[in-house]
Every structure is written in C-alpha cells, then in structure tokens.
Amino acid sequence: MNAPRVDWSAVPDPVRARLADLVARALGGLAEAEIPQRLRPVARFAPAKRAKVAGGQLVTALAESKSFRAAVVAWAQRRQPHILRPPADDVVGRAVVAMLLETDDAEEVVTAAAERAEEADLRAERDALRARVQRLEAEMAKLRDELDEQRAATAAARAEREQELDRLRQRLRERGMQLRQAREETQKAREELAGAGTATDDKIAELTERLAREQQRAAAERARADRATEQLEAMRSGVDQQLRGDQARLSLLLDTVAGAVEGLRGELRLQAGTPGHRPADAVAGATTGGKARSVVNDPVVLERLLGVPNTHMIVDGYNVTKTGYPDLPLAEQRERLIRQLAPLAARTGVEVTVVFDGAGVVAPASRVRNVRVLFSEPGVSADEVIKNLVAAEPSGRPLLVVTADREIVRAVRDHDARAVSSAVLLEVVQPG
After folding, report:
1. What pLDDT sits at residue 72?
2. CB–CB of 302/343 below 8 Å?
3. d(CA 6, CA 15)
4. Of 56, 89, 104, at which residue does a domain stop?
5. pLDDT value for 275
6. Cα gap 288→310, rounded to integer Å
7. What is the per-residue pLDDT across 252-273, written as a single tens digit (0 to 9) for each?
8. Distance CA 290, CA 82 (A)
9. CATH code, 182
10. What is the tally of structural domains in the chain?
11. Does residue 1 form part of some domain?
C-alpha cells in the first residue's frame, strides 16, 4: 500500500463520482491479479452496478493502492486515452487525471474542482430561492385579490342588511302612526260617547278590538326588526372574524416572503464577493447540472439554512437519538435530545418541533423553552405526524425535516421541504 499525495478523504463529490465510474469500467478489462482482493466480487457486476453499489470501495482502493492506480491508468491509456487528456474547461476531469497520475499540481486542481462544485451548489440554491420568492409573490397577489373580493362582498351584504333594516324601521313607523290614529279615534269616540251619552257597546268593542289588533301587529313588526338587527350583528361579527383570519394568513405570508428575500439577498451578496465570479456564471437558461433539494449532509450548509428567517425545523426524534446515542434508555434519549435542541433554537431563532412515537411512553418529556415536543397518538406513527406538520405549513415557508428515513424524505420533498441528515444535526448540537 502506498499513500497518495492528495487527501482522498477531502475529494469533492463530482470528482469522487467520476473516479468511481472510471474504476467501474476499468475492472472489466483488468487481470484478476491487478484487482485488489476485496474488489474481485464487485468485478462480477455490470459497470453501472459496480459504481452504484461499491463506488466508495472503488475510490478507497485507488487511494490505498498505487499499483491498482497504475493498472487503471494503463487500462485508460489502452482503451479510452481521451480520459487522460480532458479539455481545459473540464475541471473535474483534470482533477481525476491529476489524482491518478499524482502530479505536482494535483492538490491545486482538486481544490479548484471543489470550489467549482460549491459554486454550482450555491447557484442552484440561489435559483431555488428566487423561484420561491416569485411563487410567494404570486400567491400574495392572489390573496390580496381574494381579500378585496371578500371585502367587496362584505360591504354589499352590509349595505343590503342596512337597506332591509331601514325598510323594517319604516314599516314600524307606519304601524306606529296607525296605532296613534286608532288611539285618537278611540279617544274621540269616547269623548263623543261621553258628550252624547248614547254611544253603543258594540262601537266601543269594535274600536277596542281594532286597537288590540294594531298593537299585536306593532309588536310583531318590532320583534321582526329586533331579529333583523340580531342577524345583522351576527353577520358583522362573522365577517370581522373572517377578515382577521385572512389578515393573519396574509401577515404570515408577508413574513415568509420577507425572510426568503432576505435570504436571497445574503446569497447574492455572497456570490458578488466570490473570487472569479463572472457574468457568464449566472446566464439564464443554463445549468451546471448541480442537483437542488438534496439531503443536507454538511453542518455549514445546515447553519446557513437555520439563519433563514421564519424557518421551521421538524425533528424525527428517535431517528436522531438512535443515530447519536442508541445505548441509552428511550426516556434518557428524549431528554438529552431536547436539552441539546434548546440552545440551538435560542441561538438561531428557528422554530423547533421534535416528534416521538407515543407508543409505550409513560412519563412525558420535560418542557423546555423554545422546543415544542409532540408524541404520536395511539395508532398513529411519528412519521404520519411529521408529514401532517409539513402539510399544515403555508406554501413557501422555509421547512427543514431532520431524519434519515427515506420514506419521510421523499414525502416532505413534495411540499418543498429540505431534508437534513440526522448525523449532521448531531454534529451541530454536540460539536466535537
């Protein structure tokens, strides 16, 4: 075994993938004696399967065995010599050749490839943030239109109720006038009866009955007016509550848009200060092939995402604790994780929700400031609770889901959430 000049453990992912693909193709053309003992079972696979299943082993064998590297180089010279003469603009290809041949500038070439890969990731993230801002602006405009329509409908309904109430009041005034007229007629009849002394009981009974009917009608109209007033007040209260809800939703969206714009500004300022940045690096309609929305496996990237305003981080509790300290009892695992998350939430201002399976839990976890702790109900898994939490958030809000569960990762991506490796979170909350 001969150690190479370059630190193979720090090789960027694009270079590592290119090396694994080259070795996977070369295995089929090497003699069995040229292949390290542990790679001989892999040589039986198809080239594509070799790189996919044993890519890490292939690169590790290159790093550890100088003779194996020489065999791979010899195969490339015989079968695919163009690999050893990459174009000047193929930074990844140049890094692969420099590592295989152990050139003097190998470290510099690999560093250049790493910087190019990081720039590609940053451009992809910037484009994603820009697209999110555009979506949020469109949704905010739609909500404003809906709010204007609701206000117009509310104003029309209020005007209609006011008109109905005015009509009822007018009818009540008319009934009151009729009642006064009946009273005046009754009084006049009584006065005539008293003056003449000859009024009949039938006339008095008729006027009295008429007065009673008018009083009943007036009471009915008054009751109807009271009901209309109550209905109008109830409608006003309902409309006010709906308006407050719409305003709260609009406020949350405005906060999210502001946070996304602030994060985009920070990314743009970072790009503006990067050495070697040129206008051609940001041309529209082109891409370097970087994959957006991959699982976050870098603590530095996680710290940057936690700095985005209004971010909500949802943690798959037992997935993280069984990654970091599986030998502890479950209750101690929960307490330790919650205590580690509290300082992170206080330092970054991020909203933190940690979810545990509720089956078998006897004593609830301690309440810690800045950390929301949830347990799944009987018959419901923690995975379902996490998916429901992500689905409940408004579109466009920055979401981070910490888990190593591939099913959860696939599910939350449909809601534009970023998946974070459990191991990365543990590196951030318990450094060293």
Report:
1. 85
2. no
3. 13
4. 104
5. 45
6. 30
7. 565 666 555 555 555 554 444 4
8. 24
9. 1.10.287
10. 3
11. no
